[in-house]
Design brief:
alpha/beta, 4-stranded parallel sheet, 10 helices, 294 residues
């Protein structure tokens, strides 16, 4: 079996920053209750590792961040890397909570661009995933922002029009929507905001040649991880597997002459990917140390 270790892998800068903020918050407030409003980054292992620092996480896919906040009544609330609505910040402050924002700078940059477009009198359309916290934060900026979902018919859009996107979307999918919008609305202004970490990981999968199996190590709640798997399938790779960790890897499904590429989402701890590679190589896997994931 030939194993290709796709680069880059591991945490992106936004994830590293969010984790550093969480750790620093615990250092500065050793005795305070700290609760993350949603998953700090979309990986359950990171949530478990934060628990080792006595940092709790509340998450419920059926509830908005504003609704989830009702469950926090004391201490520090930590906002996730995906961005947060101003209404949530205001509600947290009104409850007397200490607010710490770990929003990714790329996400904040997209929000600023959208606010500027609205201030210039433009109608804003946003390509994103319904219910995703990044999209939720953007849509909270103004009720006039229109969500465009992938693989859905293009709805009627108002003009003058500015169109942008969630930072973790598939580059090719987003470009296809941009082209469709440009055909229907030639004067539309386009602001492609897919972050560089997402872009280069997707490009690395696009460039794979003669691969039999692509393994994406990442949480199924991670949009950038699921997009990598989707891109692998669209690229024609015969077998694409999205797994949380090495325990989900069935070696009996592989052949000796397989060419296997291994990549990971931007919020996947490197230790998890290393364990997968060790298992593929028939080597003893190093035990997972949650405290070293942060």
């Amino acid at each position: 079996m030939k194993i290709i270790k796709v680069q880059p892998r591991g945490y992106c800068k936004g994830v590293v920053r969010a984790i550093q903020i969480a750790k620093q918050t615990r250092l500065e407030h050793p005795d305070k209750k700290i609760t993350v409003l949603g998953m700090l980054v979309h990986n359950q292992y990171v949530v478990d590792a934060l628990k080792c620092l006595n940092i709790d996480t509340i998450e419920d896919k059926t509830k908005s961040r504003l609704e989830l906040l009702d469950q926090i009544d004391e201490g520090i609330v930590l906002f996730t890397a995906h961005g947060i609505a101003s209404q949530v910040k205001d509600k947290a402050a009104a409850k007397g909570l200490i607010c710490v924002d770990a929003s990714c700078p790329d996400v904040l940059s997209t929000q600023t661009i959208i606010k500027n477009a609205l201030a210039d009198g433009k109608h804003v359309a946003y390509i994103g995933k319904k219910g995703h916290p990044e999209a939720e934060a953007v849509l909270s900026i103004s009720p006039t922002i229109q969500l465009i979902e992938l693989h859905q018919p293009l709805p009627p859009l108002a003009t003058p029009l500015f169109v942008t996107c969630q930072t973790t979307m598939s580059t090719s999918d987003v470009l296809a929507v941009f082209q469709e919008i440009k055909q229907a609305y030639p004067q539309a202004e386009i602001g492609e905001e897919i972050c560089n970490a997402t872009r280069i990981r997707q490009q690395a999968v696009h460039e794979l040649q003669d691969v039999d199996v692509l393994i994406v190590v990442g949480d199924k709640q991670s949009n950038n991880s699921t997009r990598l798997a989707e891109i692998g399938r669209n690229h024609g790779i015969p077998h694409v597997i999205l797994i949380d960790d090495a325990s989900q890897l069935d070696l009996s499904a592989f052949h000796d002459d397989d060419v296997v590429a291994v990549t990971s989402g931007a919020s996947t701890p490197s230790q998890l990917t290393a364990q997968v590679i060790d298992k593929l190589n028939g080597e003893e896997m190093k035990p997972l140390d949650l405290t070293r994931l942060l």
